[in-house]
Amino acid sequence: MTAFADVADVLGLPAPGGRSAFGLIARIEDGLPVKALDRLAGKLAPGDTQFKYRLIPKATYERRKAAHRLSSDEGERLARLARVWAMAVEVWGGDDDARDFLFRPHAMLEDRRPVDVVIQSEIGAGLVLDVLGGLKYGTAA
């Protein structure tokens, strides 16, 4: 499974604050910086300036930007997506192939795109991580 340090790296969190499980939990509860959203959106969809609004509505984003912090629910959503992104990069060996996997419909997800399933819920993230685990460890995926 992906280490918490990998999630922190994806979100751009400095050491030591978010690099352990409990450090990451504390950072999320305190409110991740808005820059974490911008960073994650840039990694997943570098050519899509609107992608971040799939994670947080535009009006909410503008309010969070003024406050410089995300809510804990928004932070959890970001950490969930960052965890899957880190695992996809590990499995596929690079950003482009990981991105291709996440944005292409997958038969084991009822032909849904993995990124959409992850954004939808924690259960969805688990399903995508199961597919990635199957790819990583050589079981059917």
From TrEMBL:
Q: Which residues form a coiled coil?
A: none
Q: Which residues form the Antitoxin Xre/MbcA/ParS-like toxin-binding domain?
A: 88-138
Domain Antitoxin Xre-like helix-turn-helix residues, every copy? 24-83
Which top-rank group of organisms is this from?
Bacteria
Q: What is this protein called?
A: DUF2384 domain-containing protein
- Organism equals Mesorhizobium retamae
- Source species taxonomy: Bacteria, Pseudomonadati, Pseudomonadota, Alphaproteobacteria, Hyphomicrobiales
